[in-house]
Every structure is written in structure tokens, then in C-alpha cells.
Amino acid sequence: MRIAFKTSYDTDIDFHEHWNNRFWIIALVVVMALLPFIVSEYYLAEVANTLIFSLAGMGLMLLVGHTGQVSLGHAAFLAIGAYTDAALMNAGWPFLIAFPVAGLAAGLFGALIAIPAVRLSGIYLAIATLAVFVIVEEIIILAEPITGGVGGLFAPTIEIFGLSFDRYANLSNFYWLCLVIVVLVTLGYSNLMRSSTGRSFLAVRDSEVSARALGIDVTRTRALAFGLSCAVTGLAGALMGHFIGFFNYELFSIFISINLLLVVTIGGLGFIQGAFLGAILITAMPQIIAILRDGLNATAGIDLGSIPGLDTIIFSLILITFIIYEPAGLYGRWLKMRVWWEIFPLARRDMFRRQKSYLKTERQK
Amino acid sequence: MSLLKAEDIAVHFGGVKAVDGVSFEVDEGEVFAIIGPNGAGKSTIFNLISRIYTMTRGKITFDGTDITRLPSHKVAPLGIARTFQNIELFDHSTVLQNLLMGRHTHRSTNFVEDILFLPKVRREEREHRKRVEEVIEFLELEAYRGKMIAGLPYGVRKVVEIGRALAMGPKLILLDEPASGLSVEESQEVAFWIEDMRRDMGLTVLMVEHDMKLVSAVADRVLAVNNGRPLALGTPAEVQSDPHVQAAYLGTPEEDAA
What we know:
The complex is a heterodimer.
Chain A: H1 9-13, H2 19-38, H3 41-67, H4 74-90, H5 95-117, H6 122-142, H7 144-147, E1 153-154, E2 159-160, E3 163-164, H8 171-193, H9 196-206, H10 208-213, H11 218-244, E4 246-247, H12 254-267, H13 272-300, H14 310-325, H15 329-342
Antiparallel strand pairs in A: 1-4, 2-3
Chain B: E1 2-13, E2 16-27, E3 31-35, H1 42-49, E4 57-62, E5 65-66, E6 80-82, H2 95-101, H3 111-116, H4 119-139, H5 154-167, E7 172-176, H6 184-200, E8 204-208, H7 212-218, E9 221-226, E10 229-234, H8 236-240, H9 243-250, H10 253-257
Parallel strand pairs in B: 3-8, 3-9, 6-7, 7-8
Antiparallel strand pairs in B: 1-2, 1-4, 4-5, 9-10
Helix pairs in contact in B: 2-5, 4-5
């Protein structure tokens, strides 16, 4: 078992209390950076897609996992990011400016929506965000001169200082661009969570009444979380637009909102790592199911491809199983496995049984 | 000099007069206790001070500032910290994080600086951490520093909540039944801590408590309330021997006869 000897407060402030963890993170980033030399273009594109989903997942994780607010409308903010970025670039803006502006636009719109919306909570907030999504979708169709209406919009090729980041012609470059953005956002997110702003998010999530008693402005904190969440989602939307190349409003359907909610729930609510694990599962699962199905067809001659909707059923079953048996998500499962291994062979069977907290009355509220 | 002054405060929920015309003054450096039977309005008085409820009538001033109409999150920065009767900790965070959340009023960085984690943020984090460590040492929470709240026993949670209030570095601390549900030894410890808070930290303590042993041990003055009305005010001994107070707790012979 590893023990971190803490000799300075910085050990608690730093991301990792042990050099070991730091080593693995660096190793992971290095492997990810070398990936274009290792895997084929097909898989590289899949990984780029997963990275974009992780980015959007992080956006939603900040809101759902760390501030405890549900949003069913995050596809709208993906769309705002994608359309702002593409429209600005079509108007001649360089990517390096259009991209952050797209994030900012989504973030500002999110914060604006948040001012009335954050007074709602739970199912009411979910419905309100769903309404926002519907409104944004309509606006996109109506604002034809900018968005191309129903017909859609081309996302121009990204060029930074004369270097092309085209998704088809220079996939490796595009992949590296996604990787850099994801790494930067992850860093910023982690920084946020280890500082007082991040703690105020957690406070609002866990007990509003004591958050107030500690001097935290709950409405402002929630609006800030909403804004930051939407900004990150907007960035992901911009990348998604470039990844797809040509898109219209149908790309940003309600199903993307739901998929994103699944990413954060299955990944593990309240963990940044969960956004990545969830994104990997959600993007890889349809592929894995397809591969297994083809394998079954080739070896046993059973053609499940002829049954419509089977993929979706299997997909849903796996998700439901997860939510019932592992509510802490993939990352929660990983933490348990790690503890089990670290104290091997001393783990007891009931060690990870969920504890029921004593009843919390509503008297103070 | 009085630090907290409540003048004729009242709150009515529809026809229910939870608090009805209570006045008291808490002097600086004093330990002031509010006692009363269940439903007497003790916790409601706390919720009026921390502005969770809005008063129907009356006025509360703290340190010369009128807090009667202040938004609830503006109360803490004035130097009023509190605990809750039913423990309102952040269950999915560690003890350390909970205590650090108590430092919120002392933050000077904004969210952009936090995201970039500028050197300034790190300096401030170290300072918060140092203050929190002092609280951990004071309340002997060393063993629980990295533990999640959700897995802690009740007695420890109670102490963590006091710690979170102390981490704020307040002038006045409101303790809502600090000894309820604690063992004899644990409430003894709470008595020592309250003594130390007053003596070493120069805090003013306002507490609601049922345990008369604790109240007599630490309180300078006691206010007894019943049905939202004040019954008696004075030293613990005076209040305990007050016939109205005894009647409220034990009932009067006439009532028994009826």
C-alpha cells in the first residue's frame, strides 16, 4: 500500500499527493499524443470523437456532477458553439479567435438562461432546460442567413498560422488539436475544483442552507456553474461541427442531450475522470456491439443485423444494469477496485456497501 | 457592550406565532444560552438571525449593522457563523474540504484566477489550509482530516460542524444544540471547547441547548422561551428557579388537576 507522507500543505493543494499518480497521468498524455503513429485513421477518428464527447461530458459534469443541477438542454449549447464558430469562420475570422468566442457565446447565453432557471431545481429545471433546447432549435432553423436553416452549414477547414487542421486531409493534426484543447480544459477544471470556487459548487450541491450560512451566494454560484458548463459544452460543439464537417440542426438532437447525461452518470457523477470513462463507454459501445454482431454472423451464422433496433436494446440494457448496480459509475467502480487491490487481501465483503444516512429532516429549511 | 441585539422580534407562519415579541441582547465575549421546551421557537430565533426566515416584526442589529433585511449569504461576512440542529454538512466531501468551505468569506480570488490557479490562489489556499489546521488541532480532528463525512459517526460530524463554523473566524458563533445526541464525555468536551472559544479566541457564543448541565456549566446568561414568548432572563441559577420556567417544563398543579 502506498502512503503519501505529507510534509507541506502543498501536498494537499497539488493534484496528486504521490509521484506515482503524476507519472501515470504523464504517461497517458504521452501515449495519447503518440496515438496517430500507432493506430489507423479509422480508430484515430473514433478517438477524436471520444475526446470531443469527453469535453462535452466535462461541461455537463461541472453542472450535474459538481453543482447538482440537471440539464436536458445541453445539445442547445453544443449547437450554439458549433454555429457560432462556423458562422464566424465563414465570415473570415481565424479559428484561434472564433473558437474561444464560440465558447464565450455559449457560456454567456447559458449564464443568461441561468438567471431565471437556477431558481428552479430538480425535475423543474430539467423541463426548463428542455424548453430552452426547443427554443434554440427553432431559432437555428429561423436564422437562415447565418445558420443555413434546415439546409445546414459547412464548417470551414481550421487553419492556424498556415497549418491545416482539416478533419479529413490532416486527421492527425485535428486529433492533436482536440487533445490539446481537452488537456487544457481538464487542467482548468481541476484547478477550479481545488480552489474556493469549486468548493462553493460542491457546497451548493450538498446543502444549500449551510452554503448560505457560510456566505455563499447560491444564486450567483449556480449561474456561474451554468455559464462555465455551457462554455465548455460550446467549445465541444465547435469541435463537433468541424469533426462532422457539414451539419444542420438535426445533429444537435435531444438524444445528444440524453447521451451526455448518460456519459456523466455512467462515468461517475462528481468525478472529472468520470466524464472521460463515460465518453469512452458511450462512443465505443455501439462499435463493440457492431463488431460482436458481425463476429457472431461470421462464426455461428446468426444474423442479428436483420432484427431492427437490437443494437439500441443491448445498449440500453447495459446502461440500465450500470445505473442499478453501480450508481457511483465507472470511476466509482475503479476506485473500489483500486482500494481492494491496495489493501489486498484485507478487503471485506461489505466494505463498499452503501451506508444509509440517518434521516435528514426539513426543519431547518 | 452588546454585540447582537434583538428587539421585539416576531415571526408568524399563518396563524402560528413561532416567535412572538422576543427581545434580548448578547454582550461581547458572553456565552448566552436560549432554552425552552420542544417547539418553543429557539431554532426559529437562530433562523431569524441567519436570515433563513424573514421577520414579521422587530429588528436585529449585529455590531451596529441592521441585519433585519439582509440577504442570507450576507450575514456570514459580518462575522456570524452557525451550526445546525440536524447537522448540515457537505456529505460527499472530506472533513478537510468541509472546513475549507468555512473559509469562503475570506476568499479574494475570482473564478478566472481560480481556473488559472495563479500563484496568488496558491498563496491563499495555503493560508486557508493553515487556518483550518489550527481548527483541526483545536478540536482534535487530526484522525479524520481526509475522511468523507458520509462515513463518519454522529459525534464526529457534530464536531466537524463546529469546526466549519470556527474556520470562518467569526465574532459570534451560533450553536444549535451542540450537545444533542452526544455521550456524556462528548458533551463534556463541548463544554470545554465553548469555554476555550470564549477565553482563547475571544468569541461570543449564542447557543440553543436542552442539556441544563451544559448550560449551567458554560452560560453566563440564559433566556427561557415558551410558545414563542420570553419567560425569563438571567443567570442559569435564576432561570432554573423561576416559577414560570418550572411550569413550562413540568406543568402547573392547576393544569394537572384540570
